[in-house]
UniProtKB/TrEMBL annotation:
Lineage of origin: Bacteria, Bacillati, Bacillota, Bacilli, Lactobacillales
NCBIfam families, per the entry: phnA (TIGR00686)
Source organism, top-level taxon: Bacteria
Coiled-coil segments: none
Location of the Protein YjdM C-terminal domain: 44-114
Protein name, entry field: Alkylphosphonate utilization protein
């Protein structure tokens, strides 16, 4: 794999450091993955295969136990205005939302469906 020229100053002296390219002349850093690959990695789908995006409304498809609480999030609970998060940093949870009676929660997309 050849190292590309810097997209900012077109310098040929760029070098690779882990998963980034760095230009020593202008200090620009850019990712070695293309934007299309990054977008493909961030697609989140619900239990039915529908794509979920920020701001969508979802419904819980099964009772979910809440760690540290004696109550559970009941099947059919509707949640509005969700926010997608990086699942690799949160043990697989890829949705952050606010649920009435529970507060801010993190959910896995496999347990919800898009409304």
């Amino acid at each position: 794999m050849s190292i590309p020229n810097c997209p900012q100053c077109q310098s040929a002296y760029a070098y690779e450091d882990r998963d980034l390219f760095i230009c020593p002349e202008c200090g620009n850093e850019w990712s070695s993955t293309s934007e299309a690959e990054v977008e493909a990695e961030t697609v989140v789908k619900d239990s039915n295969g529908n794509v979920i995006v920020d701001g969508d409304a979802i419904s819980v498809i099964k009772d979910l136990k809440v760690k540290g609480s004696s109550s559970a999030i009941k099947k059919g609970t509707n949640v509005k205005n969700i926010r997608l998060i990086d699942p690799s940093m949160n043990t697989g949870h890829d949705i952050e939302c606010k649920i009435d009676g529970f507060g801010v929660m993190k959910l896995k997309s496999e347990f919800v469906k898009k409304i």
